[in-house]
Amino acid sequence: MDxxxxxxxxxxxxxxxxxxxxxxxxxxxxIAFPGYPVEHVQRAHDRIADELRKSGIEDLRVLELPxxxxxxxxxxxxxxxxxxxxxxxxxxxQPSGDExxxxxxxxxxxxxxxxxxxxxxxxxxANVVAHIGALRAHEGKxxxxxxxxxxxxxxxxxxxxxxxxxxxxxxxxxxxxxxDAGNIRAGTPTLTTALRGVADVFVEVRTLAAPVHSGxxxxxxxxxxxxxxxxxxxxxxxDGNVAVEGLRRDTWTGANYTDTEFAEITGMAPGMPxxxxxxxxxxxxxxxxxxxxxxxxxxxxxxxxxxxxxxxxYLNVRVHPEQDPAEGQRAVxxxxxxxxxxxxxxxxxxxxxxxxxxxxxxxxxxxxxxxAMTKAWGAEVVDSAMGxxxxxxxxxxxxxxxxxxxxxxxxxAKCNLHGFNERVLLSEVEKVALAEAEFFELFAAxxxx
Length: 449
Fold this sequence. Notes:
Blueprint: H1 7-26, H2 38-54, E1 59-63, E2 71-76, E3 84-90, E4 110-112, E5 115-117, H3 121-137, E6 145-151, E7 175-178, E8 182-183, E9 190-195, E10 197-206, E11 212-213, H4 214-217, H5 224-233, H6 259-266, H7 280-284, E12 289-296, E13 306-307, E14 310-319, H8 325-339, E15 347-354, E16 357-358, H9 364-377, E17 382-386, H10 391-398, E18 404-407, E19 411-412, E20 423-425, H11 426-448
Parallel strand pairs: 3-6, 3-7, 7-18, 8-19, 9-17
Antiparallel strand pairs: 1-2, 2-6, 4-5, 5-20, 9-16, 10-14, 10-15, 11-13, 12-14
Keywords: Hydrolase, Metal-binding, Protease
Organism: Nocardia colli
GO molecular function, one term: metal ion binding
């Protein structure tokens, strides 16, 4: 046991000050999207830098990268023979949206039923606070080397999608703790071991020079919207499974949601069936998804009795973590180009792509973290995945080919990140901080053996 005493008790004693810090950070509307006050972003940056200095990070600097908010960067040298751990998080937040849909003001933190409500509570200021808590639990002198990277523009055009290869020496570590994830459910310690890749596809059809009267010409005049809808229906089978050849889907063996749990989390209407077949984890983490996220067509409110001459759809394609997203994008494009509904050719083009990620989980860092999280939560650790992408994961891993990448955090499936009434459970913040503090000791001891 650490000579300073039980880490659980130390972190528990730290929780009131960590809670106060989290509330103060939530009260800063650090939105890095264009059009929002940059001074709030700078305030959040400065406050976190100050708190890290108080937590033992003496070698602290600002990374001023082009076209992005300032990045808090700091180091603690490793003791002789000890490994180095990189701690990642971000202090910027999503816009709050329509504040009338919040039960309490989004930037006025409110404690209720063991949770703190407010924009950025879960994503990702709680995880930044957990990093600070883990460092303070070791009085700023952890048994491992530390690199801290807290960026300020993750939610809008992160520079870390591309920057690490330009300065690889800044990010050399033995384990990367990317704390921008969370638990499959509250109280279940979870390591995210896979992220799906993403690709955009645009489908467009033009059939007429201009709208023509649907009563006079409908039935023979080629309807662009009808052709587009016919093409889109071929992307899935009758059960809702993706039906595009060349998109990979594998068996998922990690944790899963029950149908009832998934329906509650997503807010499904009563009696609404799920799309697809097979385990939910396989459908949302280890297989493809094609979602129509935008449609250009006449709105119902102003629709005229006319055959539509032009329609366009925006597809968001998610691919297996180990599939090249460009390959998946090409599969969807080729499929749609071959369809030719009613003999009409579609114009299909690709947009942005982002690689997925699959972690190697057999190394000493994973072993140490599983033990640390089991100690913190008093429950068995499960593996989960994310249907979304975190591109910086790949860029950081690329400059650390020998490092283990661990994704975890204080979020849970009901935290409403990016939504209204976002919240984080204080019990999860405490356990993440404790797990990190335990991990530092276990990882250092394991590497030295």
